[in-house]
Fold:
Amino acid sequence: MPDILMRLILILCAGLYYGAFALSLMKKSKDTLRKPLVILHAAAVIVNVGVIIYNYVINLIENGVGYAPFVSMYQVLIFLAACFFPIYFLVDRAYGCKGYKPFFLLAPAFVMTGPCFMDIADVWNFAPALQSVFFIPHVFCYMLAYVLAVIAFLVMLMAFLKKENHDKVCYCCVRMLFPFMTSGLFLGSIWADQVWGDFWAWDVKEAWSLVTWLNYMLCLHLYRREKTKKYARVLLITGLVFVIFTFLFANVLNVESKHSY
Amino acid sequence: MKGFNKTFYLVSCAIMGVILVATFALSLYLGLSGTVPADSFLSNLTVLVLLISMGALTILCVFLSTVGGKLLYKIGFYVVHCGLVVLIIGFVLTNLTSMKCYGELTELDAEGSLAPSVEFYEGDVLKSRVDLTHSVGLKSITTEYYDSGQPRHYEAILVLVDKNTKETVKEISVTVNHPVRIDGMKWYLMNASEDGKSATLLVKSNPGEYVVIVGAVTLIIGTFVMCFSDGFSVKRLFDKPAGKDEPAQKGKKVKKNA
Structure:
């Protein structure tokens, strides 16, 4: 497929997400506009998933088996955008998405905007250290955890702005997030022992991910007591700050790190 | 007795909180400064003391706290905290007892020599010396590169040579993500030289290795069991239709309108 066509599809996908977001903000979105909203959202997700499948097939053809659709930042971001929908679906079933819908549409729209301007042909040259069975679970777990962290923060923000109590949903997000973050962290640790001979080396990214993990661990403990619930909300904010730092510190600022691939 | 228990519980929770915050601050400092404990004014001892006290207090808090909720949640609770304690024990063991040795082996055909033993140094001091049952040599190393010049694949073939008869006993292949075990020590391929004639190897003996792995796996399984046990069970998702169980918010809205 020519690059320009792919770029058009990506722009279409981001546009669909933005369109659905704009619709969801309108007052009539609950009755008359409900159907168009659902159709736009569904179309965006279908295009997104289609691009992922296309990436997967392309990876299969070019590199052979074992290349999940995360071989470059471009593919990772497309995958990340699609992760929002299943979580939205679950939260909707459990709690009824009262007013959360715009966030679940804006967040993937933001994420999809990135790939529109990225180099499609760019593929990471997998260093020997990266060729491992741990690569896919490690990255996948962290992506799910980060998506949930963003959503927990957004729900908390909305609760703060509207002066409503949404602790239940935030707690549910943190509870979904924590197992994935734990898996990502400790699978990474086992992987590090396989490749560098150390379980833990106090690398910049490792230290930050430990901070993030401890943050959400504290958060879960605070949610268990009625009196301490309000402090847990603060930890959701710091949690997002740490997540962004962990995700970008080593990769963007080019700090000397074992994780700067 | 009950009153005593409650004070005890609160105090241990408070200490646990302080230790968590300390670990937090430590990792924050290390993350910002980009150093490792050994290189900064914090020694490895600080980390060890924090880890050990965290493990001890976790045990204490688990015994003191009462766990509510479903059976699955309770099981998850104990599995998680046991896993955490095992993991901490493993990390402490690793920190105290593991030994590392970096060395370069040259291909035997290119006048490389056999290694009859492994010497573990700490700084400049010889810590211990382990005699291998068979001498180890590098038979060959293959390197592949991408078009951009970045490394794609390294593979080293090690030979075990009998010390007396000089006969080859076994050939073992080592790649970057697949260390091998020789005489109870793990041999890692770290790097290959540019001329493709010699390889940098890391030999590590770590008695606490399996403790860490068991702890980590237990912790992962435990968090999944605990976090997905009630609050977000599949049954709950499909029993209650969306949006019918939050009368509190509807009440608020009605009040506002009135």
The longest strand of chain B covers residues 125-145.
